[in-house]
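Example (one chain per record):
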Amino acid sequence: MGIVLITGGNKGLGYEVARRLLAAGHTVHIGARDPERGARAAADLGARSVRLDVTDDDSVTAALTEVGAAEGRLDVLINNAGVSGTPGVGGITGPDALRQFDTNALGVVRVTQAALPWLRRSANPVVVNVSSGLGSFTATADPERVESRVPAVVYGATKAAVSMLTVQYAKAVPEIRFNAVDPGFTATDLTAAVGGGRPVEESAEVVVRMATTGPDGPTGTFQELDGELGW
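Predicted structure:
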């Protein structure tokens, strides 16, 4: 069984993924900006918690040092933490765009860079980047898909960046498997302002599948529930 770190693991999709992986016998550390919320979620789940703010370099370094020192390695990193902004263009501002990119894209870079030394100690290292169909050129250009009708200007751009980071890391670090996933439109705090979405239990499936893929599994791909998704 593996050692897993999930950013933003104290609620929503991250919480459900943690629950599933724990049930399968993995050791799971959930990263949370708020240490009290993280500790409560970990106690409820039977997981371990670590304070981790993906927008803060010192926090990221400290968190990965803590997990690495406790476990000696990291087998699975799930870059799940993310934020959204106001739908449409009316509420877009420079500071809000920077906030979204800092969390959704640069957060992936910060955490991945800090995790690399510990992932390299694993016999089966895996990184799963939670992206979105809203960041897929294929999905957003397909009139049959809902993503083509959602004007997620900045959020979609941040997730497109996550997808490119996935491709580039997969090429740069071939000994570690990097894959992006689209969990689909899910009913979580992130989507509460819009309403709707499928149950988190369903959306977690693709994340868990890619987190538990074997050494012969894919790398540098974009996956959704029904299979591979075009970039």
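Caption: The helical segments are 12-23, 35-45, 57-71, 94-119, 137-140, 153-172, 200-211.
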